[in-house]
Design goal:
By secondary structure, this protein is an alpha/beta fold. It has 25 helices and 21 strands. It has 3 domains: about 280 residues, P-loop containing nucleotide triphosphate hydrolases (Rossmann fold), CATH 3.40.50; about 120 residues, Pre-protein croslinking domain of SecA (Alpha-Beta Complex), CATH 3.90.1440; about 180 residues, 3-Layer(aba) Sandwich (Rossmann fold), CATH 3.40.50. Helix 5 packs across helix 6, helix 12 packs across helix 15 and helix 23 packs across helix 25.
């Protein structure tokens, strides 16, 4: 490790340290993308770090005979060395050895060599790809502790409040022995509690809470964080704004489930808004939905589910004009009229209940398509949310007026140093490199994998596919094996639940509508004979433990009931089986009527469906596999373009706001 210490906050970093925005020219962007694609190839090669491991092992031998008080004295001296001299080869190895020794004594868990490798990768500001079940939570303690000992505030970022709270409580004794304070940010905390948590050496938080707290700080600081400005403000004002902010800046972050946070959730900007008056628009929203219901496809408009786009035909534009000419107001302007029409048609035809949203407590709740969880505090922009409310017959919510916004790409690039860990980063290594300047390194598994891929089977129709899934469940259930079945939507999970009930098979369902006991349900999914139906990503971050009986029966069997629109999401589901050398297997069932294929191919698949809809409706693999792979690859590229366009829009908006003299 040749690099020295990064900039520290405080004396060296000034008040509220963060990295300034970096905007690439077109040639630089092309080079960054090319380098990212090379990284995608090299990310498949595991990293060993043998020399570093030998050094840590040597240092570790010297610690085993020390008492706890002697270890505490060593910790003080080591922290002094790290803060004065930065991170070098020797003191980093000493620090890793100390953390491992303390962890073994306090938590009863001693880091494996592969976890030391993962911790070093993150310490160097990279993404560590560690297979599911390899102990990423414990691995992060190495990086977090060493950085905190060197005087740098650390944010450990994860995907939900449960994981943030669990990990903070779990690892707190280790950090306490090392003289480090630990805070956690939860949704129901007030400003003072948040400020106290961020003042700790290590703060566990979710990406959503972290980013929104940052935006609130930016509103207080009015987008000005230069040290000189803050120092002058302290002289000019009785209570400087610097005393009102919650965070200490963006120094160092470890992003757990980095692909989910940095890629999947980067399609939507984060917005702080204030409620406006919806009464003047309520009539317009209702008019838009009522008018849209009179339009017909393909005569008046064309619809692309693949691109989530509505286009009016010339006849449709004329019909829209005739239908609204008596309404006046915004309907009199062609641009506004067609925009309202498109949003209304999108609400009616593109956004589907129990897939994109739920109707709960007389309100519209958006469902995260990657995690399967409800995003209760999110809403769609530009009147779309209100039009869906009209469509479903619920009360129309207040219109939101944007105060400040930022994308996840832009937010996380502001960290002085950023790192992360995940089980699935290879497929997006190029994007992580080109957008965040993050290199992805693969960590080998601690034990040889015993996961058995039982293959993928394609059927002509959804009915044939569900019949095949039921047959597979019955076969494995008779052997006493626990079964985890992944579905792509709430609707699919409830449909399958109904089929299992008809067969008399006891099971548990976990989706956005039933997620109160998420961690408990997933933790018990490895019990003998247990059948669990879950949206693909539910329970991520929770271990599925097996007993001896289950291991003897063959371990957890994972059934995927379709391909996701990103291959790594499928890998995440498969990774629930056969953790840490346990036995396990996975199998996939798809149909030509699955949304992934239907949206991509449209009516082109109808002849093939008709041709193969006999017997059990099986579609030969040499036809099915290339078709499914192409649809999935295209979907991945489309989502990547959406994220790129959001980043470009962010940069363009910044330029406009800078020209007008406003901040974000």
């Amino acid at each position: 490790m040749s690099d020295r210490m990064i900039m520290r906050p405080g004396l060296l970093g000034g008040f509220y340290p963060e990295r300034s925005d970096e905007r690439l020219s077109t040639p630089d962007r092309i080079m960054a993308n090319a380098y990212g694609r090379l990284q995608q190839v090299f990310a498949r090669r595991p990293v060993s770090k043998r020399l570093f491991l030998r050094r840590v092992k040597r240092e570790g031998h010297q610690l085993q005979d020390l008492s706890n008080s002697e270890l505490a004295e060593m910790r003080v001296a080591l922290a002094e060395d790290l803060q004065l001299n930065g991170l070098g080869r020797q003191n980093t190895a000493e620090a890793f050895a100390l953390v491992r020794e303390v962890s073994g004594r306090v938590l009863g868990m001693r880091h494996f060599d592969v976890q030391l490798v993962g911790g070093l990768i993150m310490l160097q500001g990279q993404i560590a790809e560690m297979a599911t079940g390899e102990g990423k939570t414990l691995t992060a303690t190495l990086t977090a502790a060493v950085m905190a000992l060197s005087g740098v505030p650390v944010h450990v970022v994860t995907v939900n409040d449960f994981l943030a709270s669990r990990d903070a409580d779990w690892m707190q004794p280790l950090f306490a022995f090392l003289g480090l304070s630990v805070g956690v940010i939860l949704e129901d905390m007030d400003v003072d509690e948040r400020r106290a948590a961020y003042a700790c050496d290590i703060t566990y938080c979710t990406n959503k809470q972290l980013a929104f707290d940052y935006l609130k700080d930016r509103l207080i600081l009015e987008a000005e964080t230069r040290p000189l400005h803050m120092a002058l403000e302290g002289l000019l004002h009785d209570r400087a704004r610097r005393e009102e902010v919650m965070m200490r800046g963006l120094c160092f972050a470890i992003v757990d489930e980095a692909d989910s946070v940095l890629v999947d959730e980067a399609r939507t900007p984060l917005i702080i808004a204030q409620k406006g008056d919806a009464s003047e628009m309520e009539t317009i929203y209702r008019q838009a939905i009522n008018t849209a219901r009179t339009l017909q496809t393909p005569r008046d408009f064309t619809m692309s589910e693949r691109d989530f786009r509505i286009d009016f035909t010339d006849l449709g534009k004329a019909q829209l004009r005739r239908s609204t000419q008596q309404l006046g107001g915004v309907w009199a302007t062609e641009t506004h009229r067609e925009e309202l029409g498109r949003q209304a048609l999108s609400a009616l035809w593109l956004y589907k209940r129990d897939k994109h949203y739920l109707v709960q407590d007389e309100s519209i709740q958006i469902v995260d398509e990657y995690t399967g969880r409800v995003m209760a505090d999110r809403s769609w922009e530009r009147g779309l949310h209100q039009m869906i409310e009209v469509k479903e017959g619920v009360d129309i919510s207040m219109r939101q007026e944007t105060l400040i916004r930022i994308s996840y790409q832009k937010f996380f690039r502001r960290y002085i140093r950023l790192s992360g860990m995940t089980g699935t980063a290879q497929e997006v290594a190029g994007e992580l490199s080109s957008v965040y300047r993050l290199r992805t390194r693969r960590v080998p598994t601690n034990k040889r994998s015993r996961r058995w891929d039982k293959g993928e089977y394609c059927y002509a129709t959804s009915d044939y596919k569900w019949q095949a899934v039921l047959r597979e469940v019955v076969r494995k259930h008779k052997k006493g094996r626990p079964i985890l079945i992944g579905t792509q939507s709430v609707e699919a999970s409830e449909h399958l639940s109904g089929l299992l009930t008809q067969q008399g098979l006891h099971h548990r369902v976990l989706n956005a509508r039933q997620n109160e006991a998420e961690s408990e349900i997933i933790a018990q999914a490895g019990l003998t004979g247990r059948i669990t139906v879950a949206t693909n990503m539910a329970g991520r971050g929770t271990d599925i433990s097996l007993d001896d009986t289950t291991r003897a029966a063959g371990g957890l069997h994972v059934i995927a009931t379709g391909r996701h629109d990103a291959a790594r999401i499928d890998r995440q589901l498969y990774g629930r089986a056969a953790r840490q050398g346990d036995p396990g297997s996975h199998i996939t069932f798809v149909s030509l009527q699955d949304d992934l294929l239907r949206v991509f191919y449209g009516s082109k698949l109808k002849p093939l469906i008709a041709l193969t809809s006999w017997g059990r409706g099986w579609v030969p693999g040499f036809i099915a596999r290339p078709s499914v792979n192409l649809a999935q690859w295209t979907s991945e590229k489309r989502n990547s373009r959406i994220r790129q366009n959001l980043l470009k829009a962010d940069d363009s908006l910044d330029e406009l706001l800078a020209f007008s003299g406003r901040g974000e």
